[in-house]
Amino acid sequence: MNNRLPAWFRQDLPQDAAFSQMHLLSELNVNTVCKVARCPNLGRCFSQGRLTFVILGDTCTRNCRFCAVNKANTEPLGIDLDEPLRIRETVKKLGLGYVVITSVTRDDLEDGGASIFSQVIELIHALNREIKVEVLIPDFQAKDSSLQCVLDAGPDVVAHNIETVKRLYPHVRAQADYRRSQEVLRRVKELDPSLITKSSLMLGLGETEDEVREAMEDLIGAHCDILTLGQYLSPSGSHYPVKEFIAPQRFMRYKELGIILGFKAVLSGPLVRSSYQAEELYQEFNYV
């Protein structure tokens, strides 16, 4: 297909405030999604004081075909023990009131990096308990001990992305498992029913509308509260190709379907990413 971006992807260039934040992040040596995963919303999010931190380094132990994150070679990855402290300092300097923390997948670690998630949450809450923390976690190979470690630190939202429909997992996420991801969300609710849970789907990978509905229904079955849907953009010619650009009108239909099926909040659009407008979705959930 023609990979030229449709008109609805046009965005304003980053303003001075965004460049100032990028300079601070570089100075403090912290990773964010916009840098590690090449998110297209950098200018808009930074101008609003929104960013998603990436912990556990910038190299992943899995090889998902949709993702721009660096992939591990045979070298040990290690852990940067000062990373949580630098994130706390960044949150303090930027005066953030809502913080999103995600990570690369670290299957090389016994707990999948859950203890580092816990440290970051606790350090942010030590700054100010009123700061809301959303975590976007890997599947931790469905280990209850890792999930409990993160939950014990007291996040306000726990997200885990299923990313795509079941049929496409072998082609797009060969080292992940569709049912395991559903089980992660289900177990979070079982371990702490008061927690808000969240997931995300990329569209344009070749999925059908029936498959999207099935994925939504599976997420509702796992007691997922919030859903985001966005357009997949291939990071390079060697990644999984874009099969279709989904029109904004269809994204609106998916949002309407999500609300009908029972999600408490749905954000759906071409530029939507899993942590995009995270604070607004959190507030929308609490107003339902």
In short:
With 288 residues, this protein is α/β, with parallel strands linked by helices.
Question: Explain this structure to me?
Answer:
With about 290 residues, this protein is an alpha/beta fold. It has one domain (about 10-285): Aldolase class I (TIM Barrel, Alpha-Beta Barrel). The chain is about 40% helix and about 15% strand. It has helices at about 15-30, 35, 40-45, 85-95, 115-125, 145-150, 170, 180-190, 210-220, 250-260, 280-285; strands at about 30, 50-55, 60, 70, 100-105, 130-135, 155-160, 195-205, 225-230, 265-270. The strands form 2 sheets. The protein has an 8-stranded mixed beta sheet, with helices on both faces. The chain has a two-stranded parallel ribbon with strand order 3-4. The longest helix is centred in the middle third of the chain and has 14 residues, at about 115-125. The protein is globular, with a radius of gyration of 18 Å.
Low-confidence stretches: none
What is the CATH fold-level name? TIM Barrel
Largest sheet: 8 strands, mixed
Average pLDDT confidence is 88
- Strand content of the residues, in percent? 5-15%
What would CATH call the homologous superfamily?
A: Aldolase class I
Which term fits the overall shape?
globular
Question: What does the secondary structure layout of this molecule look like, with pairings?
Answer:
Layout: H1 16-28, E1 31-32, H2 33-36, H3 42-47, E2 52-55, E3 59-60, E4 70-71, H4 83-94, E5 98-103, H5 114-127, E6 132-136, H6 144-152, E7 157-159, H7 169-172, H8 178-191, E8 196-203, H9 209-221, E9 226-231, H10 248-261, E10 265-268, H11 278-287
Parallel strand pairs: 2-5, 3-4, 5-6, 6-7, 7-8, 8-9, 9-10
Antiparallel strand pairs: 1-2
